[in-house]
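cron nightly-structures :: item 1 of 1
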Amino acid sequence: MATTTDKASSRDRLLDAAARLSYRDGVFVGIEALCREAGVSKRSMYQLFDSKDAMLAASLERRAPWYEAQLAHPHPETATPRERILHVFEQVTKAAADPDYHGCPYLAVLVELKDPEHPASVVARGVKDHLTQTFRAEAERGGAHDPGLLARQLVLIFDGASARAGAKVENLDDGLATATVTALMDAAGMD
């Protein structure tokens, strides 16, 4: 009989496998591949999760705090709103240099699934909404004329930059993303 530790370990291995494989191969990766990667039987997977969809959603939800922490400025108490926003785009630029970078995993889920009611889409949309809210709060702190509009523009640049870099059709190391964001913040009247 499986112990609680075994189940937690199997669950963690499945969530890690779902994160790795869905990011690398897309959300339609097969259950057999996920279970093989995790070293867990399909029976065990279905004991832990109601469905592959539920496992994918749990994997995205589990990774969200780490993802958001990667975008957060290391010194938020001393950084200006402008510096905190630019840091997000500097992080995308740095991530895009990795040959295994495939763009924003949350945007990829939304694009691949196309179903706004899918459990993974709900989680992904929540993460993207949080990023928009973060940009809006920083835009307000920085004195932008229309913080909501600037936040939407910043997310558009973020998603476009990460998608194009992930598809290997754009190289962000020339500073295009940060230059574009700087121009938007200037035009919005941010300090």
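cron nightly-structures :: done
Confidence is low (pLDDT under 50) at residues 1-5.
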